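2024-03-11 09:14:02 INFO worker-7 job=invfold-0412 stage=load source=structure_tokens
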């Protein structure tokens, strides 16, 4: 079975394809996307994914179809989402002779997608690119065209909007995903349920997806979660308003991720972010005591952390100050509003965050 979800934004129209065996079909999928045989295909992956053979699978398929293809691999981890790494890739592309007709294919998790997408958005003022996500979390990051790199002062501070030609989510690749990475991805799936799919949230409450399920189940799960994101980016491609709702859990989550020096993975940091932001919402009576309990429980049942680590609140606040959502005396937060909805709140104060942080550290 293969699921095609269509994404249509103000500037682009592409398919998010989920299914088994997609990577080995890359050779005939490219011409369908209008990629001519003289286009140089530049694959970006990370060393772990490379060793697992997924990038090679695409390279072989693409070469057999008659394309020139070069593969570049970066060290795994958020440390590779940097301007320095982008420059290395530009140089490799120049060496390989990639011209403006070239196509970048990102084969990996959100790190590779964000980095390779940024390189594609900027190399010779922009070349086409395809997302081939290999983590559950990347069902989220591969849709919507947000690409970018980190600066030492914060995550995703340099970037662009660059929509892919297509997203190929080959569920076979998820089978090698370590449990911890699967669960990190579940944080974004739960987030999508909280934002716009109450039935998905309720289903996961009843039967948590603790590890990679079989192919058809994983396809359905991803399709459900991805549909929430697609619906939102279609209405607001450039995050002028509505798209902000996707940042649920991320205002605190990004700060936690950064202060942990990336020892927590993105999904784990987002889970802690959702928890703290739920406490703020509870204090502001946007969620009831029962809804608060359900949110904490669903995260816990998926093996995700719900207590902030023992960082000082000040280090988190300092990071929030650099965050682009900071508007002066208070912050703009996306907070849960019952289950299946969110509310953008513009006046979250230092005291609000402090109280929520302390409650989250003490109570479960
Ligand atoms: N652009 C967006 O809209 C957006 C949205 C959410 C997250 N993000 C970004 O995504 C990044 C996190 O993505 P991630 O969690 O996928 O991290 P990741 O890309 O670092 O992948 C996690 C780990 O899993 C390994 N891996 C990947 N695929 C594998 C597979 N199939 N089998 C075994 N191991 C595999 C990787 O080598 C890595 O070590 C963060 O940088 C975050 O900022 C971006
Ligand atoms: Zn995220």
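2024-03-11 09:14:09 INFO worker-7 stage=emit residues=364
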């Amino acid at each position: 079975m293969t699921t095609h979800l269509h994404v249509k934004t103000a500037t682009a129209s592409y398919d998010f394809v989920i299914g088994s065996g997609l990577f080995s079909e890359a050779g005939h999928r490219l011409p369908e996307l209008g990629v001519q045989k003289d286009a140089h295909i530049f694959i970006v992956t990370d060393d772990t994914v490379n060793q697992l053979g997924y990038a090679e699978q695409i390279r072989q398929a693409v070469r057999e179809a008659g394309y020139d293809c070069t593969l570049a691999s970066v060290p795994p981890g958020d440390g590779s989402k940097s301007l320095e790494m982008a420059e290395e890739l530009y140089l490799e592309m120049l060496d390989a002779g990639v011209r403006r007709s070239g196509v970048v294919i990102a084969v990996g998790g959100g790190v590779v997608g964000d980095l390779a997408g940024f390189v594609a958005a900027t190399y010779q003022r922009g070349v086409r690119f395809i997302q081939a996500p290999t983590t559950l979390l990347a069902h989220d990051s591969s849709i919507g065209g947000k690409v970018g790199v980190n600066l030492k002062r914060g995550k995703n501070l340099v970037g662009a909007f660059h929509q892919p030609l297509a997203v190929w989510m080959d569920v076979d690749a998820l089978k090698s995903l370590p449990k911890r990475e699967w669960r990190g991805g579940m944080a974004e799936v739960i987030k999508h349920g909280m934002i716009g799919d109450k039935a998905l949230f309720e289903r996961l409450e009843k039967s948590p997806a603790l590890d990679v399920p079989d192919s058809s189940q994983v396809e359905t799960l991803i399709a459900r979660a991805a549909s929430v994101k697609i619906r939102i980016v279609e209405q607001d491609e450039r995050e002028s308003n509505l798209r902000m709702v996707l940042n649920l859990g991320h205002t605190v989550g990004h700060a936690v991720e950064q202060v942990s020096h990336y020892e927590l993975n993105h999904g784990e940091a987002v889970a802690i972010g959702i928890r703290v932001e739920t406490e703020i919402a509870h204090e502001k009576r946007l969620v009831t005591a029962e809804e608060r309990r359900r949110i904490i429980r669903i995260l816990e049942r998926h093996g995700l952390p719900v207590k902030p680590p023992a960082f000082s609140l000040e280090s988190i606040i300092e990071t929030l100050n650099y965050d682009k959502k900071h508007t002066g005396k208070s912050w703009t937060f996306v907070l849960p509003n019952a289950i299946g909805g969110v509310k953008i709140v513009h006046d979250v104060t230092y005291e609000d965050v402090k109280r929520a942080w302390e409650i989250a550290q003490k109570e479960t």
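2024-03-11 09:14:09 INFO worker-7 stage=report msg="The longest strand covers residues 154-161."
2024-03-11 09:14:10 INFO worker-7 job finished
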